[in-house]
Amino acid sequence: MEIDALSALVCVVKEKSFSKAAVKMNLTQPAISKRIQNLENQLNVKLLERLQREIILTEAGQILYPHALNV
């Protein structure tokens, strides 16, 4: 598990947007998406529900998020 991926998760949740998180982290939106996707693949769980205009944490995401904040 990479710190960069956890940072991306925290930023996406706080900003409620992959695009806004990318701007805040000085990355591209696809780079943010890839970090989240890699984290989900490593953990073998879906962390975020990507709805049309909303991003919400899944149950697994809700468990991981407080730990990611502490990292």
Structure in words:
- The protein is mainly alpha-helical.
- The protein has four helices and two strands, in the order αααββα.
- Helix 2 (18-25) packs across helix 3.
- The longest helix has 15 residues, at 29-43.
> Which percent range describes the beta-strand content?
5-15%
Distance between the termini: 11 Å
Q: Name the shape in a single word.
A: globular
Helix content, binned percent: 55-70%
Detail the poorly predicted runs.
Answer: none
SSE layout and pairings?
Elements: H1 3-15, H2 18-25, H3 29-43, E1 48-50, E2 55-57, H4 59-70
Highlighted features:
71 residues, mainly alpha, 4 helices
The gist of it:
The protein is mainly alpha-helical and 71 residues long. It has 4 helices and 2 strands, in the order H-H-H-E-E-H.
